[in-house]
Design brief:
There is one protein chain. The chain is α+β, with helices and mostly antiparallel strands. The chain is built from four helices and four strands. The chain has one domain (3-114): Nucleotidyltransferase, domain 5. 44% of the residues lie in helices and 19% in strands. 25% of the residues are buried.
Length: 119
């Protein structure tokens, strides 16, 4: 197989996993859905109220000047936890966005828990 086909297959499988996860969880104003996106360079997350269709809080590692690795995911999560607390949010529903709960995604979720956000 060519590299382009491998990448297309990988992305389509992630899209299937993403739909499967999103079918089971919904965010509200009291418990928003926290979704994570990671690229090869950066990590971003946002808290979404699916009922109203608005983003309540967001963070991006590019704006913080950090690249994506487990140590920096902890720093990004600490910043995100502060913005969630300032918005009055203490409980969230975690959406791994089709990624495996491993590595950077797991470090981000664990750091949210360590900073007082209930998942």
């Amino acid at each position: 197989m060519s590299r382009a086909k491998d990448i297309a297959k990988k992305n389509s499988l992630r899209a299937i996993r993403k739909k499967r996860v999103r079918g089971n969880i919904k965010g509200t104003a009291q418990t928003p859905r926290v979704t994570v996106f990671k690229s090869n360079k950066y990590l971003s997350a946002q808290a979404i109220d699916d009922v109203a269709g608005v983003t309540l809080a967001a963070v991006n590692s590019k704006a913080l000047g950090l690249n994506v690795n487990k140590d920096n995911a902890v720093k990004v999560a600490a910043t995100f936890a502060e913005s969630l607390k300032s918005a009055g949010i203490e409980t969230v529903v975690f959406d791994r966005n089709g990624y495996l709960y491993h590595g950077v995604v797991a470090a981000f979720a664990d750091a949210l828990r360590d900073n007082g956000i209930k998942l």
